[in-house]
């Protein structure tokens, strides 16, 4: 078994490393939210290579490690998230107050929260129905609620809105998820195929 125990750098921050990655026969692994925070774990590279990772740092998308001189490229497995889109809300004082109430409710639940522009992202920490029941009373008219897959790094402190496709805000759109539209007292649902089920799995 190869062991990756040296940090080389990050291809999104160092163009020379990106060029090196293109020119070398590197291993590629995708790590989940739990693995990327562990100091050691065992995994299988995309080509089937048995690989151990022993590193005293949290992994990020684009990291390069060295395993006996061979590069190992890190990707992050996306996580399912609730997306609260406030783009259709009138920017008046009551809407701002409601948004603050939403933040307070999320904080009371100790849920992670990331904000990009007019969208708030919450990783699925519970079944959808319970999360919706907690969030929806605080949403002003014009808000839509849907679901997406995003990089777990989106919820790292200071990372929202930054990074590469995987490091900042990689999204998977189209077939998965459903939207709720809030406005004029109505509550509509639009469901798509491939929807993440209530337990958070696809």
Task: Provide structural commentary.
With 202 residues, the protein is of the alpha+beta class. The protein folds into two domains: 2-76, Urease metallochaperone UreE, N-terminal domain (HSP40/DNAj peptide-binding domain), CATH 2.60.260; 79-191, Alpha-Beta Plaits (2-Layer Sandwich). Helices cover 16% and strands 34% of the residues. The protein is built from three helices and 13 strands; from the N terminus they run ββαββββββαββαβββ. Strands 9-10-8-11-12-13 form a six-stranded antiparallel β-sheet, with no helix packed on it. Strands 2-6-7-3 form a four-stranded mixed β-sheet, with helices on one face. The chain has a three-stranded mixed β-sheet with strand order 1-5-4, with no helix packed on it. A hairpin with a 2-residue loop joins strand 6 (63-67) and strand 7 (70-76). The two termini are 32 Å apart. Residues 158-180 and 182-202 have low confidence and may be disordered.
Set out the fold topology.
Elements: E1 2-4, E2 6-10, H1 15-23, E3 27-31, E4 40-44, E5 50-54, E6 63-67, E7 70-76, E8 79-85, H2 93-108, E9 114-116, E10 119-123, H3 128-135, E11 144-150, E12 178-183, E13 186-191
Parallel strand pairs: 1-5, 3-7
Antiparallel strand pairs: 2-6, 4-5, 6-7, 8-10, 8-11, 9-10, 11-12, 12-13
Counted beta strands: 13
Structural class: alpha+beta
Please tally the helical runs, counting DSSP H or I stretches of 4 or more residues: 3
Overall number of domains: 2
Range of strand content? 25-35%
Q: Class of the largest domain, according to the CATH hierarchy? A: Alpha Beta
Any idea what the CATH architecture of the largest domain is? 2-Layer Sandwich
